[in-house]
Amino acid sequence: MSPPAYRLTAQGAAGKFAAQEWTPGGRPRDGVETSWRKDGVRGWTQEFRSGAVRVSFAVWIRDVDESGCFDDLDAVYEQGEQVLATFLPEIEDSPLAGHLAEAELTAADEEEFIAARKWIVDGRVLTAGVVQQDTDPPVMVVVALEAAESSGAVSPVRDHVAGSARRPAGAGAGDADPLRRGRARGCPRAAGPA
Question: Whole-model pTM?
Answer without folding.
Answer: 0.72
